[in-house]
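Side project, low priority. Logging it here so it doesn't get lost.
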Amino acid sequence: MTNPFDADTALNGADGRWRAQVKEHWFVQRGPNGGLVAALATRALIEAAGGEGRAPRSLTLHYLAPPEAGELEVRAAVERAGRTTTFASLRVLQHGVTVAYGLGCCSAWREGQPEWDELEHPDVPAPGEIASVDTAGEFPFLSNYEMRPLAAPHAGAWMRSARPRPADPVLLAALTDAWIPAAFEYMEQPTFVPTIDLTIHWRAAPGVPAGEHPWVLGTFTTRLGAGGTWEEDGLLWSEDGILLVQSRQLAIVRNPR
């Protein structure tokens, strides 16, 4: 049986043009969660630029408009293919109108290169020490995941798919926008905060994290809200402390009509 996450992020087609479906259980107020669109774009990036040991390394998406429930068209075109890195442009359309546009690259993991690590792993309880919570009533798209939220002062959660599946680049892309916006901490009441752009950097070797249903620790911070926009930085970690993904997004504050 196909995993529900894989069914919801499936691409049907070939030669750089695919069809996908947006389902309402991915919605956040108006339109689907940005992580779903990021997952679809990541699949297209892998199809277009992956292979030959090349895995997703970077993706920047601009969200032009929230799609409706129904069919999407996803397009990808290789812009350049070098010895170890391939770049591809990506476009998501609905009813012939572009709703998201991006550029990404896949590259080979190269051993023996200079390495350094000045990162500080968050000091938080293990996922087995935290109870899962049901937050799907307020945010329906969260029903696609299992979440174990962190206590203050950390903003984030241990996360994984609702049904067992590996934490591959497609799921990790979705998880960069899966948790409740960090900006809500600074607002008197939650409002509509759609993403303008989202950049994802995959930082771990292919196959990390291992396992059929691993937990991923996501921590999210924001330092500035000004002029109706705010930024959010995200870090996704494996259970054994390996940084999997760095993300950064700019979002807009929309007051309820």
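Brief comment: The helical segments are 4-8, 34-49, 169-175.
Revisit when time allows.
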